[in-house]
Structure formats: C-alpha cells, structure tokens
Amino acid sequence: MGDRIRLGVVDDHPTIFAGVRAALAERVDLAPGTPCAATVDGLLDEVDDLDVVLLDLRLADDSVPHENVRRLVERGWPVLLFTQVKQSAVIGRCLRAGAMGVVGKHEDLDVLAEAVRAVARGEDHLNADWASALRAIMDSRVPALTAREEQVLRLYAAGLPMKSVARRVGVAEETAKEYLARVKRKYVDAGRPARTKTELYHRAVEDGHLPPVG
Q: Global pTM?
C-alpha cells in the first residue's frame, strides 16, 4: 500500500456517497479518484487494485451480501461494510466471508475515517456494538446449511416453484424437495421453525441467504 489510500465503493446511491467521500477526504489521505459502482461486478470491472472497499449490503441488484464480500476478498481487496443493515446474522455471515469490519451509515464520519485507516493497515474494525454479529453466526440458532441446501432455500424462498428450483439447481424435483426438507428440519432443530414458504422467506432474509428487504 502506498502513502495514499486507494478507496473503492460499492453503493447504488452515488450522489449521496459523493458527500461522504468529500467529508472522508478531509479526514483520510485518499488517492485521487475514488471509483464508485452500483454493483460488485461494476467495481471488479472498473479497477485493478484497491486498499479498501466500502461495501453497502443493500443493493438494488438483490445480490447476496456475503457472496459480494467473498468475491471482493477473492480479488485481494480488504472489505469494510458501510451499511444501514442491522441484522446480526447478515453481518456475521459477511464477517465470516472475510469482511474486516463494519460501520453503520448512522455513525459519525470520524468513526468511518478511523475504520478506513485501520482496514487499510490490515487491522480489523469491529466495535462492541457489532460484536453480537459474530456471536449470532456461531449460535446454534443459525443453522449450518450445505451449499446445495442454501441454493435451494434461496430460490424457493424467493418465489420459484419447486420444479423451477430443481431445473435451476440441476437436480430432479424429488431431490430438490429433499434438500428443502433438510433445511426445514434444521430450522426446527434450531428452534426456529420454517414450515411455510413465507416463514422460509423470513428465515432466509434473517440469516443472510437473501438480501434484506426495505
């Protein structure tokens, strides 16, 4: 990393972030030209090397937050979550995927500036208010799903009929039903039953398998 921090942003409100960027520039020695993209794909296509990526978790493309983190981390970019999302399970999954910290959009800009500097130095930034996110993801009440179970849950809870889910996953319909049955059993075992499609949808959002609503 050079003396100036190369900052990138994934946020689908670029006009709003322009003000944040200007305020950050007064507090952090940023390299000229901060790329801001509305999607992870957009940022990956736009720039080769960054010291810190600020990632909003609620994007218009309905992408899954922890998958976005994983893709950015695979590029070798440190990720700092900058978001209004407060679901601890969602934050926890993002931290497990490799995010180095989180700052709420309601927090003071001095907090954001210090977090950017810390992550650029290779240090985690996680204050006490967000520590529960790590505990939540380790809590047995958040079921551990296999990759295939998670895929079936996402598609089915998002509204696809089972036949379409099976086709998208590439398995027989009965096999897809068995994956979904396993998901339901795991939620029952965790003390959070999800017997209906609506309940599955709410669990999927709560646990970060689908993007937050609102």
A: 0.71
